Amino acid sequence: MPKPVEPAHHPYGPKVGALVERLASLPGIGGKTAERLAQHLLDCPKTEALAFARAITDVRAAVHPCPECFNLTENDLCDICRDPRREKHLVCIVEQPRDLLSLEATGIFPGLYHVLGGRISPLNGVGPDDLNLDALVKRVRDRGIQEVVMATNPNLEGDGTALYITNLLAEQPVKITRLARGIATGSVLEFANREMLADALRGRQAF
What we know:
The strands form 2 sheets. This protein has a 5-stranded mixed β-sheet with strand order 4-3-5-6-7. A two-stranded antiparallel ribbon has the order 1-2. Helices cover 41% and strands 13% of the residues. The chain is built from 8 helices and 7 strands, in the order αααββαβαβαβαβαβ. The chain has helices spanning 14-24, 31-43, 46-62, 79-82, 97-104, 133-142, 156-168, 194-202; strands at residues 64-65, 72-73, 87-94, 111-115, 147-150, 175-178, 205-206. A hairpin with a 6-residue loop joins β1 (64-65) and β2 (72-73).
């Protein structure tokens, strides 16, 4: 990954350098792209740049994790948890809110979700205590959940996280399934197409 530009050394001055450095820290944004974005913000009308800054401030102030499923929401509960048409006894476990969005785009899954907030990754310093696992166990125990669908990403860490959760729920009277392996091992849900995800949901199997 290109090294971020040091603010103090940027030819346009430290403030532009700081902006470039912040932009370059975003996922998928390299140094050159960060400089082009910074240049656009400098060239565009002041009102547009301020509206962009205000949108960031507003979303940070208004959006928070749903206390039920940990999806992102601006309300007391997210729209999915509030939807009376959802099957309350069916819960799909995903790593991040973006994975939830990918599965929702299929229009197939009728249940609720539980967002872990990541996956167990010892090399990156992420352990079980860093995930929303206690809340998951409580949901399964107290809400009469009948089926849990493991939709962690089909790679080593995702499968390890799913196995850990399976052991965690071993004493609960709940059916545990996982997405069918139409999703290739090592892939990421966020980048799977709609048809692939729909097939995986329909063909979920015992974990």
